[in-house]
UniProtKB/TrEMBL annotation:
Keyword Transmembrane helix applies: yes
Keyword set, alphabetical order: Membrane, Transmembrane, Transmembrane helix
Transmembrane segment boundaries: 149-172
Organism (species): Cercospora berteroae
Residue ranges of the region described as Disordered: 113-141
Protein name, UniProt field: Mid2 domain-containing protein
Biased composition (Low complexity): 118-141
């Protein structure tokens, strides 16, 4: 029993970590780490040091302060790290003063903490996740061939259709122009007939007077016996003509008979 107490007191004579972090690699944010140590002091403080920074300063987080001598373990939850280049250290220090002596401080070696964001964005080496990408690359040529075939069929079938449509439109336009030309000709003929109708009516209305004028002209067979000169009646023959110089037809003879009856 006495030997065990001597051994324990000898172990407590030095402040040190018993569960060292060296060789464990970078720690991952969010995981739990068992930290153990020995201390000869009645009060001990556990700290997390971050740094040094570019200006040589350190950021200190107190994990557990003034732990008694019988408490020599601590379950540490690794925090997230914003900067992958910043080193970390766990540090033990005598809780009560004076605490500036060399035996009053113990530290671990520097280590890195891998952030959760860097683990999500880091490439994985799982083969099942990378194998589905292979069919997509091989399917691109097939898809392009289908597209090319569709474009070729569309162009091959579209050109005859376009040519047929243009020919149909041309024929319809030509037929319509021909019909308009025929209608225009009919309108011109009808307009010409309407223009000629007044001249025809004038000729028809003056036909009776033209016969009278021809009667007074010189006969083709020579002068009649009652003509003295062409167009003049001989003296004594006036009773055969009216006041206007036109010959009586049948009415003067009836009038002559009537006058003879009245004398009786």
């Amino acid at each position: 029993m006495a030997a065990l107490e001597v051994l324990q007191s000898a172990q407590r004579a030095t402040l040190e970590f018993t569960a060292a972090l060296e060789g464990s690699g970078d720690l991952k944010a969010g995981e739990s780490v068992d930290v153990a140590w020995n201390t000869p002091w009645e009060l001990t403080t556990l700290e997390l040091w971050r740094g040094p920074a570019r200006d040589g300063s350190f950021a200190v987080d107190v994990l557990a302060a003034n732990l008694t001598q019988d408490v020599t373990t601590y379950l540490w939850s690794v925090p997230d790290n914003d900067s992958q280049d910043t080193p970390f250290q766990l540090r033990l220090q005598k809780g009560d003063r004076p605490n500036e002596c060399a035996e009053c401080v113990a530290s671990t070696s520097s280590f890195q903490i891998e952030s959760a964001a860097s683990r999500q964005t880091s490439p994985t080496t799982d083969t099942p996740s990378s194998t589905p990408a292979a069919p997509s690359a091989s399917s691109r040529p097939a898809l392009s061939r289908e597209v090319q075939l569709g474009v070729g069929l569309g162009v091959g079938l579209g050109i005859p259709f376009v040519v047929t449509l243009i020919a149909f439109i041309f024929l319809c336009r030509r037929k319509r122009q021909r019909r308009q030309h025929q209608i225009q000709q009919l309108n011109n003929v009808h307009r010409r007939q309407q223009e000629l109708m007044p001249e025809r009516d004038l000729r028809f209305s003056t036909g009776a007077y033209s016969s009278v004028s021809r009667f007074s002209e010189k006969s083709y067979h020579g002068p009649f016996e009652f003509e003295d000169e062409p167009g003049k009646v001989k003296p004594g023959w006036e009773r055969l003509f009216g006041r206007n110089g036109l010959p009586f037809l049948a009415a003067p003879e009836k009038a002559k008979d009537t006058r003879g009856l009245l004398r009786h």
